[in-house]
Amino acid sequence: MENLTTMMYVFLGIDIFSIAVLLLMKKVGSNKFVYNAIGVYMFVVCILLFMATPTEKFVLKVLSGVLFIPGIVATMNREKNFELGRILMIVTIVLGTAGLFLLG
């Protein structure tokens, strides 16, 4: 249980860093490599949330699966509408990490 708590705080630190890059450093956040790296991290959080949700809690399992949709839209919207993609990515990261903290 101690390792899980440590992992959650590591995720929280990466979340804060990712959100700071996307919000405060727009020039760095709009870089293709940085944006894609944050996108990969976002999908890792979504996958962990989906896998950590017990099968008995069907509604939570569906909600964690639905969390992939804004993540995909955020990743695809980088060239067309960076602001919308950035906001969706931040919301997905925050909801995914909050879900992991609630389950853990």
UniProtKB/TrEMBL annotation:
Source species, domain of life: Bacteria
Protein name as catalogued: Uncharacterized protein
Keywords assigned: Membrane, Transmembrane, Transmembrane helix
TM region positions: 6-24, 33-52, 84-103
Statement: the UniProt record of this protein carries the keyword Transmembrane helix: yes
